[in-house]
Design brief:
By secondary structure, this protein is of the alpha/beta class. The chain folds into three domains: about 5-70, Response regulator (Rossmann fold, 3-Layer(aba) Sandwich), CATH 3.40.50; about 90-170; about 180-365, Hypothetical protein af1432. β1 (about 25-30), α2 (about 35-40) and β2 (about 45-50) form a beta-alpha-beta unit. It contains 14 helices and seven strands.
Length: about 375
């Protein structure tokens, strides 16, 4: 663990400094969720490896990253193992019992190519609790089968019968949906980061807000799923700025009433952009409502306390706090302690959630005011 920071912030600092930006960064983390990998890659990392890891794999990936750094190519969002349109997915049957392996292969052959052990695969089939082959990619979906019948005691085991091919096909389709989500979310985060670069004080702001919001969520006892929603929602909350004029985002003077009204449409525009991604629907309340206030004076819908989800309140507080710490053309940044005082004044006016600000204040005190 890093004191007062995290790997994402360190990576951002490396990539935002012209002298160190060319240095490849590889994340080595116990966090293996898609959102964590997307966040690491969006910070500029060349690769993301989850623990536990094999030393040989780590060395191979380091070698690949260094080779790419010496001979850069255009980045790709599509995985190298993806199939061309109409090409059948590949299944690897890693079953030690020859008769059972043959039977499984026969059942799957009408829908899948049966891959050789060393060939790239879309899914692997293993028997019961058998170990997964060590050479497989860690994110490859696994279907565990049994020669017996389905059992309530082992719902994770799939019987080897006429339904096996359909079930394996569903697993492959789900993996492709996850790949689409990962690529789509990564592209959107990169877009949001690029838009934020029009405002130099805003560079890295989304990452800082996301990290701060997750810390608050953890302090309030939210589960991993809620914290993942908070993290990704914070990263994408301003993606609607992509549909606003760059000149408006870069303007440093006072905005006219018309410009202010246009800028305040970014939550609605962000909701429109993400609305096409069904699997990102859980982020829409954060994107649309992160400028709402508990007293109903926020925008775009003027929601009041009971109408604003806790995840939204957390991101709103984190956003305000990080903005106060940052130097702006119209004012200098303040200390963490002073920022808490400002937020507490907003609580007294009925704008912010008292419990959320209290959790943040406890964090700031524990880290010495930062």
């Amino acid at each position: 663990m890093l004191p007062d920071t995290d790997g994402y912030d360190v990576c951002l600092r490396i990539k935002s400094n012209g002298a160190t930006a060319p240095i490849p960064v590889i994340f080595l983390s116990a966090r293996g969720e898609v959102v964590d990998k997307v966040r690491g890659l969006s910070c500029g990392a060349a690769d993301y490896i989850t623990k536990p890891f094999q030393a040989a794999e780590l060395l191979a990936r380091i070698d690949a990253v260094l080779g790419h750094a010496r001979n850069p190519r255009a980045p790709r969002l599509v995985r190298s193992t993806e199939r061309a349109a109409g090409e059948r997915p590949v299944v690897r049957v890693a079953i030690a019992d020859p008769p059972l392996a043959t039977h499984v292969g026969q059942l799957l052959a009408p829908r899948f190519e049966i891959g050789a052990p060393e060939a790239p695969a879309d899914v692997v089939v293993v028997e019961g609790n058998a170990a997964v082959p060590a050479d497989l990619n860690e994110d490859l979906p696994i279907v565990r089968v049994t020669a017996g019948r389905a059992s309530e005691d082992r719902p994770d085991l799939t019987p080897v019968d006429g339904q096996l091919a359909r079930i394996v096909d569903l697993v492959v389709r789900e993996r492709r949906l996850d790949s689409d989500l990962e690529a789509g979310a990564e592209a959107l985060i990169v877009l949001a980061s690029a838009i934020a670069s029009h405002d130099r004080p805003g560079q890295g702001h989304g990452e800082r807000v996301a990290a701060r919001a997750v810390q608050i969520g953890r302090a309030l006892g939210l589960d991993d799923s809620a914290r993942m929603t908070i993290r990704l929602g914070a990263l994408l909350k301003d993606v609607g700025n992509a549909r606003l004029p760059a000149s408006l985002l870069a303007k440093q003077g006072e905005l006219t009433a018309e410009e202010r009204a246009m800028l305040e449409r970014h939550p609605l525009l962000g909701e429109e952009i993400l609305g096409g991604f069904k699997r990102l629907s859980g982020l829409l309340p954060i994107v649309r409502h992160h400028h709402e206030r508990l007293d109903g004076t926020g925008y775009p819908d003027g929601l009041r306390a009971e109408q604003i989800p806790l995840e939204v309140r957390i991101v709103t507080v984190a956003d305000r706090f990080e903005a106060l710490l940052t130097d702006r053309p119209d004012r200098p940044g303040v200390s963490g302690t002073e920022a808490i005082r400002v937020l507490q004044a907003s609580v007294s006016r009925g704008e912010l959630d008292a419990a959320v600000v209290a959790a943040l204040a406890t964090q700031v005190r524990s880290t010495g005011g930062g």
